[in-house]
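User: Show me sequence and structure for the first protein, then do the same for the second.

Assistant: Starting with the first protein.
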Amino acid sequence: MNLPDVNLWLALTFEVHSHHRAAKEWFESTREESCAFCRMTQQGFLRLATNPSAFGNEAISLERAWVCYDMLISDPRILFKEEPVGLERLWRIYSRRRSYSPKVWNDAYLAAFAKCGGLCLITFDRGFRQYSELSCTLL
């Protein structure tokens, strides 16, 4: 089971995204119920898809963002995962490893979610290499 990060969901959805082709190629190789949203990736997708600072004129309305999310989650390859047991404990450990950066909380959370849930994090972000015990695929 895979846990794509927010950027992968955005790249898959928006053709103007610089990683759209790579995200689409990766996603087309997945099988039924093999990809998961979590609450953070859901919220991040909705927030950034509607943000003109992120997508300029391609940013979508809040209503349209929900429609896009509903289309994604209706795909048989995608499901929603609740927080796994032990997430907060590991999230605290991971967040103590680093000094502050704008991404420390989200990255530590996603790494902990993937690790505790037995998921493979799918990302374009090389920063996840720091979590040596994490199952992670860098595209």
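Switching to the second protein now.
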Amino acid sequence: MSNNDKIYIYILLVLYVYGPMSFTDLYYKLDSFEIKTTKGNLQHHLNKLKEEGLVDRKYLPAFLTKKKVVYKITDKGVQNLIDLVHEMKRIESLINNRADDYKTIYFPDEELWERMLKEAEDRKISIYQLLKEAFEHYMKSKSSANERVKES
């Protein structure tokens, strides 16, 4: 996922959760979530989202002669967020199913499986990556054992 995609998602999410807000409020709210962007870049993203019909821009009367611009998420934008959440849940399910497949095939022992999951979590790697490392280690040690047998 590109940084632009993340910004689009966070803009929609902030407008959905916090409601309509000014450009400046939106900019600082994104910054509070550590979504770093420039004001020019944010304006570009808002324009793109508006073109796609995901965000609407309204002008509200403000003090004296200035107009206040407020951005809000549209119904299409809300549906886009809902679709994204469903897709993320589907991906999570696929990942969990794959982990269950690994467990069934490689670790019929529940205690060993739990230790492997904890190791992967502690090292902040996927269970797939941990299994790959274990397999590579096994193949390397098997190769070393074969070489020692040949030398004898």
